[in-house]
Amino acid sequence: MNKFVKLLTVSLGLTASAAYADYPERPINMVIPYGAGGATDISARTIAEPLGNAVGRPLVMANVTGAGGATGSVAVQNAKADGYTMLFARVGSHSVNPAMKATLPYTLDDFRFVTVYEINPAACAVAPDSGINSMDDLVAKVAEGGVTYSSSGVGSFLHIAAVMVLDSFGVENPLEQATHIPQKGGGAAATAVLNGTATFLCTNSSSIASFVANGQLKPLMVTTAEPVVGFDAPTANELGKPELNQLVGWTGIAGPAGLPDDVAAKWGDWMAEATKDAAFLEKMTSRGSVIELMDPESANEFIRGQYNKFRSLVDRLGMRIEG
Amino acid sequence: MSFYDSILAGISLVGNVDAFLSLFIGIVVGVIGGAIPGLSATMAVALTLPFTFPMQPINGILLLLGVYKGGIFGGSIPAILIKTPGTPASSATILDGYPLAEKGQAGKALGMALWASCTADVVSNLSLILFAGWLASFALNFGPPEFFALIFFSLTIIAGVSGDSLLRGTLSAVAGLILATVGLDLVYGTNRFTFGDSNLMGGLNFIAVLIGLFAIPEVIAMAWDPTGHLGKARSLGKSWVTFREYKDSFFSIIRGSIIGVILGSIPGIGAAPSAFLSYSEARRTSKNKENFGKGEIEGVAAAEAGNNGVAGATLIPLLALGVPGDVITAIIIGAFMIHGLQPGPMMFVLNVDIIYGLFIGLIVSSVMLFAVGSVAIRAFRYVADVPKRILMPAVLVLCIYGVFAVNNNMFDVGVMFAMGWLGYLMVRTRIPAAPFLIAFILGPLLEDNFRQSMLMSGGDVSVFVRGPITWAFWTFSIIALFAIYKSIRNAKTA
Question: Staple partner for B271: which of B78, B146, B307, B313, CB 3.0–4.6 Å?
Answer without folding.
Answer: B307
